[in-house]
Amino acid sequence: MSESFLSQYGADISTLTLEHLWLTGAAMLFAAAVAIPAGIWLTRSPRWAKPVIGLTNVLQTIPSLAMFGFLLPLPWLGERAARIAIVALTAYALLPILRNTYTGIRGIDPTLIEVARAIGLTGSQRLLKIELPLAASFIFAGLRTATVTCIGIATIAAAVGAGGLGELIFRGVASVDNRLVLAGAVPAALLALIADGALGLLERRFKVPGPESTRR
Amino acid sequence: MSTALEFRDISVIAANERRLLDRVSLAIEEGTVTAIIGRSGSGKTTLLRTANRMIEPASGEVLVAGASERDVVALRRKIGYVIQETGLFPHLTIERNVGIILEAEGRPREQRSDRVRELLQLVGLDPASFGHRYPHQLSGGQRQRAGLARALAAEARILLMDEPFGALDPLTRAEMQDMLRDLLKRVKTTVLLVTHDLDEALYLAARIVLMKEGKILVDVPSDKFLRSDHPEVVSYATAFHRGTSRKSAHEGGTA
Question: Between residues 4 and 43 of chain A, which touch chain B (CB distance below 8 Å)?
Fold first, then answer.
């Protein structure tokens, strides 16, 4: 990319990158705040697991452009494009986090859960000291998948005027300017790679030590 | 001697209506080791697990030190629990595994680490070299020692042991039995030991309870067990002696 291009669009690229980060970051926080507790709850009421995970699965299958379109006419949400984007991205992020939280905890060797009960840990101590740490690498894997997916989908949010790096891509497509398309696509890809690497590190950091299988 | 643990008329019924325990009553004296033996499915583990209410009986009650404890968490903290798989938490160091109940009780860090050090020494593990290791870095016998230390952490007055040494090789198993015997002389704990191994029961316990189909068939001091003429004991004793008699018969035949 030439210097003049960067001087012309540099400020836009950085503002839109920050906007992209804000949209994805907010969605991930909401999704984690909903899906991790919901995943934990499902481990306690497994009969709900199939319908609830099924529902998030359905959300995942809605094409992103259609999802943004569905949300556009809704009151309050439709007033600000960023709200639509965050809600839609949250919906996409739910499934991987929910599924991984649920399977991460359910997959723990039942002997360990039984011992935790037998030695007198309370329900919350069992969750915080045993179950969540043992499932943590699974939960981080879910967060990683969700984040990488959402960074990609967030580029479509520009179609409803929510901003983000998609705006450069759409402008580039409309004006048949590949440099603009790349100015949006390359930072979005870099963000995805960085998020993938950083969350991958956390995933490995929380991996249960030892060759022994502690999972069913 | 007072009664540390008492089972009164305990019945446990499985989901398929099968009676796992059928009106079992048993009183365990404080500071003694009682072994429960029996075939697989005889109800021995079920009985053990009603003591810390991992299984709730359909009828009857379990008394600890003469009282029925309502708070199940408080009850379980008073009762140590050791199982064959050790159940050490793989993400915690040995030090944290052993001290987990003290941590759960909110005891200060310093008090916790002093107690953990003392317990590790008690079970023959050097705190300096084992405290910071993870369970997978220990051998089977060392893991079982750590599991025992954890069970004793909260000054447990009762120790439930379910086939604790069942997965160990014979030599390590013998070492562990010696260690436990020695340890129980120093720590006054009431032990209820479930085992398949008659040799282990005879070596460690003062009293042997033989169960079959959810009932207690024989309940005798261990030195009288092999002299019992109960048919089930006779079968046990025959099986117990078969290894030696087979070997001598074989040696006699080939000599």
Answer: none
Q: What is the DSSP string of A69-90?
A: HHHTTSTTGGG-HHHHHHHHHH
> Contact B164/B148 with Cβ under 8 angstroms?
yes
The conformation of residue A23, written as its DSSP 8-state character, comes to H
Which residues of chain B does A117 touch, with a Cβ-Cβ cutoff of 8 Å? 54, 76
Contacts of B106 in chain A (CB under 8 A): none
Residue holding tokens 């790349």? A182
Structure tokens at B70: 């309502």
Give the pLDDT of residue A28.
Answer: 96
Q: Which of A114, A129, A134 sits opposite B100 (nearest CB)?
A: A129
- Please check whether residue A20 is in contact with residue A191, taking contact to mean a CB–CB distance below 8 angstroms: yes
Quote the pTM value: 0.86
**Quick one: CA dihedral A190, A192, A197, A202, positive or negative?**
positive
Q: How far apart are CA B55 and CA B40, in angstroms?
A: 18
**What is the pLDDT, as a whole number, of residue B66?**
84
**Nearest-CB residue to A211 (from B76, B136, B151):** B136
User: How far apart, in whole angstroms, are the C-alpha atoms of residue B53 and residue B44?
Assistant: 14
Count the neighbouring beta carbons within 10 Å of the beta carbon of residue A208. 20
Kindly state whether A132 is in contact with chain B, defined as any CB-CB distance less than 8 angstroms. Answer: no
Q: How far is B51 from chain A (nearest CA, A)?
A: 10
pLDDT in tens, B21-52: 999 999 999 999 999 999 888 999 999 999 99
What residue ranges define each of the domains in chain A, with the CATH number in brackets?
3-205 (1.10.3720.10)
- Give chain A positions within 8 Å (CB) of B142: none
Given a cut of 70, the residues of chain B with pLDDT beneath it are 1, 243-255
* CATH code reported for the domain at B3-89+157-254: 3.40.50.300
Summary mean pLDDT of chain A: 90
